[in-house]
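Minutes, project check-in
Item: structure for the 302-residue chain
Input as provided by the requester:
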Amino acid sequence: MNPILLLASLMVSATPILLAAIGEVVVERSGVLNLGVEGLMITGAVIGFAVAVNTSSPGIGFICAALAAALLSLSFAVLTQIFLSNQVATGLGLTLVGLGLSALIGKPYEGMKSPSLDKLDLPLLSDLPVLGPLLFSHDAMVYISVIIVIAVAYTLKRTRVGLILRAVGENHHAAHALGYKVIRIRILAIMFGGACSGLGGAYLSLVRVPQWTEGMTAGAGWIALAIVVFGSWRPWRVLIGAYLFGGVTVLQLNLQAAGAAIPVEYLSMSPYLITIAVLVFISAKGNQGAPGSLGRAFHASS
């Protein structure tokens, strides 16, 4: 396969995971551990697909996918931030709810094709040799995902909003003592993460496939969670991690297509095995800068 097209397909392959992972970065930097990313992605995938099919507009599909996933993540926010339920158990429950809900909603849409996003034809830029097909011949969501990473990185590091969010994630009691609304900030962060996960799921069903298949996220949400750790909760490292994973995925698909003398099952599991190996390696090096209050419940009276 043409190596330029191979690298270009890497960006498309990485976009769903990048969107989910950058949303989870914001959630975890606020001090909340949401393990329901897989459920939010599959909900975004089915809602985005159903809306796009019925409206013939993938753009409206993406918007509705983000809203639906944000709404579902609000239930997680209410349970964990107001009723103080266990974040790990509630996140796992959210994944199961998302998988069940998507199977129910998506049943009538199996076997159907959805309208997909067209590639942008950027004047002059897309005609450049090498760089044109590599960087400037993608659909809009690829660029939007990178813009979201830039916006999150800038907000976290350069703005007052980012400073407050990081303060809440590092020490929620100190942030509360300074007058910041810890619960409100965390709920907004959770909904932002949910919306990003919904966009990632919709990208799977509207661009990468594009059709609806039950369970089509196939663990992408869990990979996104792993990439957050891989990226040490930093947006730029998360971007690199998502593209590395996308590269491994594209490579194993091409090896399968080329008839490599390796069992398909081994090639299919290779991205996940590499992710586990990287996480083990990172964990062996000790603390990688996780937010101080990550996963800890907050109550103003405690």
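Outcome recorded: The longest helix spans residues 3-29.
No further action items on this chain.
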